[in-house]
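Run log // design_07
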């Protein structure tokens, strides 16, 4: 085996040895902080709920591709759980939530290999749960974000190249964006931008990176296909919807009234989007379909994510329905272009996240969340909407340009696109020597 294929293993071995010899002072004999047992229990559950979304995504995406690419597509989601977990412990959490360096990134040294995390003071916005639990909850968001991108370049990317891109994206796109948005000293947080559970950090970033990836890798040789398993798509949607309650309601960081509001708005937005999507398809002369209902439900979940803890239940219905129509139209537009976004990640997650971000600036209410500094435009205050709109443009440019640079770098190190022969054979066999 060539040396270049052994390098990743050697790096992991060095990391394991380094961890072995680090001082073992991370768990003190006594705790000096008081935690709420109910909040801690809910956040433990929420952390597990968010993690199950990534296997759910694997089924959601895996059912949409051709049979010869199902395993490869699902593995691209599953492997993120392994790679990003290790990366998060080593340096990712420090970059996202370490002491701010100019409001754009955290100090990479602060929590290196999770040193000090177990006995650190609670996070300022989650004072009733252990800091370690907060770090693990945030890990699950870091896991699913790059996994979402894979739907855009499914059926044509080399697995080893994807692994490298996965790491680079997490370090240079996700972590800075999480820091800027969710760290109290982050530049977006300081500007008053609201993102309750990741509409900007997770879905906009993944969707725009997906657009860059689809353009960069160009069209598939055979880009017309039938989904392999629509039943997988239904199963994946169910797991995503189930896990999303931890995603959104867990972002209240406690078992409290706000978590209930977030759970309620998540439920209603997704339901409204699912039914709106299939009715809009029917209005345009298409048959109501299982795929349409699933896509609609996920779009609703995406759109309500930034707004879940800031808007009322009636407004969440409007947000879900609006996002479903806009994403439906964007998917139709994308299909008539040369952009081969295999599973329409940009029209669903990217555009859905944008709709949710802007409508957060419209409907955010102090009656729902009294901690916000300013209400939305619906209540006659336009400052929040302006902040959300400016942040949308800035984030979009940062993610697209940054992702394009990372794609160029990855491709220079290891070619990203499989050969025509491997694509025709299918990635399950050509990349993994496995069959469905």
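design_07 sequence
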């Amino acid at each position: 085996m060539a040396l270049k294929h052994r390098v990743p293993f050697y790096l992991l071995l060095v990391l394991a040895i380094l961890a072995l010899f680090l001082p073992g002072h991370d768990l003190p004999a006594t705790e000096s902080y008081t935690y709420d047992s109910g909040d801690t229990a809910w956040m433990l559950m929420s952390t597990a709920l968010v993690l199950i979304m990534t296997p759910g995504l694997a089924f959601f995406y895996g059912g949409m591709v051709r049979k010869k690419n199902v395993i490869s597509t699902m593995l691209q989601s599953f492997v993120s759980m392994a790679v990003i977990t290790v990366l998060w412990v080593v340096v990712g959490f420090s970059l996202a939530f370490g002491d701010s360096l100019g409001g754009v990134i955290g100090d990479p040294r602060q929590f290196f290999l999770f040193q000090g995390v177990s006995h650190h003071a609670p996070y300022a916005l989650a004072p009733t749960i252990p800091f370690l639990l907060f770090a693990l909850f945030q890990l699950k968001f870091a896991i699913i974000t790059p996994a979402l991108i894979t739907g855009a370049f499914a059926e044509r990317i080399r697995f080893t190249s994807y692994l490298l891109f996965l790491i680079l994206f997490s370090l240079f796109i996700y972590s800075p964006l999480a820091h800027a948005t969710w760290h109290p000293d982050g530049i977006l947080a300081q500007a008053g931008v609201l993102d309750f559970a990741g509409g900007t950090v997770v879905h906009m970033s993944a969707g725009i990176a997906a657009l860059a990836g689809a353009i960069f890798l160009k069209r598939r040789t055979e880009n017309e296909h039938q989904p392999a398993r629509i039943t997988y798509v239904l199963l994946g949607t169910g797991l995503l919807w189930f896990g999303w309650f931890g995603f959104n309601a867990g972002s209240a960081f406690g078992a409290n009234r706000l978590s209930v509001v977030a759970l309620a708005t998540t439920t209603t937005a997704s339901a409204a989007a699912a039914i709106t999507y299939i009715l809009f398809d029917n209005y345009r002369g298409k048959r109501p379909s299982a795929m349409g209902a699933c896509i609609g439900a996920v779009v609703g979940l995406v759109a309500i994510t930034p707004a879940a803890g800031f808007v009322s239940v009636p407004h969440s219905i409007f947000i879900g329905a609006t996002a479903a129509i806009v994403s439906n139209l964007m998917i139709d537009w994308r299909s008539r272009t040369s952009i081969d976004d295999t599973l329409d990640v940009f029209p669903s997650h990217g555009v859905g996240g944008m709709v949710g971000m802007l409508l957060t600036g419209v409907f955010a209410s102090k009656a729902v969340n009294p901690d916000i500094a300013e209400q939305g435009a619906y209540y006659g205050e336009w400052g929040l909407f302006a902040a959300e709109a400016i942040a949308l443009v800035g984030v979009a440019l940062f993610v697209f340009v940054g992702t394009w640079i990372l794609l160029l770098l990855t491709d220079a190190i290891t070619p990203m696109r499989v050969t025509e022969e491997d694509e025709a054979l299918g990635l399950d066999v050509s990349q993994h020597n496995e069959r469905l």
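The chain has a mean pLDDT of 94.
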